[in-house]
């Protein structure tokens, strides 16, 4: 410490250091107070039986409060890298919220159409018209026999997610 | 300590302790206002009154409202509307005032733009006003979701989704803001807190600041004349009231404000009693349902222009996604007004009718905002999408060309 630094400066710097540490910790605490609660995180699993689904008629289930589309593809629907193959069946699994601004598109015979801003998605959940910037999102899932468990990342999920990235 | 003597009246007793005489002079009887201002300058008092109505009606709604996803809808639509004595009145007063307050804010804002009241020396008045506008928008949106109807829910869904456009952290940010993977109970309770506590406090502080910013450069006038307030005030105080260009706020000027306020309140209560429906979307009388979206969603009328700028860009340009262009344009629309004092390159403060190029610019902006507002409510398909695109592009171009436009006027006057 130089001769010009007096006792008041020292008290000032010390206070600034204490206040900085306290302020930073307070911000961390406030940030975490707005994070999802443990009960919200724990409630994030949904199990669905795939065997009863009719081809060409997507079902909608709720996972984490969001709609999930599960479509068993018919023979004439084209193959896609994001197809989930279980036994002899191909499925499209997607979060049913338009990737534009989050409305729920409705199934119209051969595609999902969003009423809000006119976005359209094909049976492989790819955006084919309108403002949506990307295909419908893929929810994390794992496969147990003929059941799909939404909310955990199984090997089948990882394979499709990597294929979609490429 | 100040000299305290035995007081002969309550007023004197307070004056010795709180200096009330001086305070009244500074705030009211010697707060000078130019004579040359029209009814458009009464919007400040109208806004202060409307904000007070919002607070008082809000307090009465707050006593019966329940911020819980299972109870919110019924607490508004059954308890307040059916059971609480005059609950319907408080709700309609609150709902209509929330809408009307934006009408008055826009008139206030465009009066300022027309008369150049944001320029040289009055920048802080403008900035604090724009901060108030942004906070009012957040207040309006957070209140809109509280009844937990379908429109409330999907408005919350869309607005919180906008944060997903932030680079890198977007998705995590949306979850953090909502407190859940979806718009849910945590979202409702935190927006309830913002609406009834944090944002109103911020608004009150900003209103205080906005008033303070006015005291030093003083209020503008119809001819944008630069008045020497000290000299004019002296004339007034020495009894030369006719010659003086200023009058005290209280009790002289306020009488004009109160006359305008009287007309405004008649209009306001006419809406409250006979046309409250315009502030109550029918879709919002369906309880929120996270598994079904209404066919067509749109914001309240006062957000339509910026909503249309957001969705006006509906096609990708090269590597740029339509979504990102729209989001950037939306961001532009929301901050550009704040920069107005620096975009206006004219060296003089003058009303728009004395600045030919700026006059044209001003009315094109008005027309464009009206087009954006109308098309913001229409479904964005076919020709509508193109109208939206051109109006949104024009909006951006207007602000890009503003420095040039204002320079032209200055040059024409020979400066």
What does the model show?
Chain B: Pfam families: Cytochrom_B_C, Cytochrome_B. Chain B: One of its GO terms (molecular function) is electron transfer activity. Chain B: The chain crosses the membrane at residues 39-65, 96-118, 124-146, 153-179, 191-212, 258-278, 325-344, 356-375, 387-405. Chain B: Residues 10-223 form the Cytochrome b/b6 N-terminal region profile domain. The complex is a heterodimer of chains A (166) and B (415). Chain A has two domains: 7-35; 42-165, 3-layer Sandwich (Rieske Iron-sulfur Protein). In chain A, β8 and β9 (127-129) form a beta hairpin. Chain A has a four-stranded antiparallel beta sheet with strand order 2-3-5-4, with helices on one face. Chain A has a four-stranded antiparallel beta sheet with strand order 6-7-8-9, with no helix packed on it. In chain A, strands 1-11-10 form a three-stranded antiparallel beta sheet. Chain A is 26% helix and 27% strand. The model of chain A has no long low-confidence stretch (mean pLDDT 90). With 166 residues, chain A is α+β, with helices and mostly antiparallel strands. Chain A contains three helices and eleven strands; from the N terminus they run ααβββββββββββα. With 415 residues, chain B is mostly helical. Chain B folds into three domains: 1-30, no CATH class; 39-223 and 252-297, Cytochrome Bc1 Complex, Chain C; 307-415, no CATH class. Chain B is 65% helix and 1% strand. Chain B has helices at residues 10-18, 20-29, 43-62, 72-83, 87-114, 123-144, 150-162, 170-178, 185-215, 229-237, 249-274, 304-312, 322-335, 340-343, 356-377, 383-412; strands at residues 32-34, 246-248. Chain B has a two-stranded antiparallel sheet with strand order 1-2. In chain B, α3 (43-62) packs antiparallel against α5 and α12 (304-312) runs antiparallel to α13. The longest helix of chain B has 31 residues, at 185-215. Chain B is globular and about 70 Å long. The interface between A and B is medium-sized, with 27 and 34 residues.
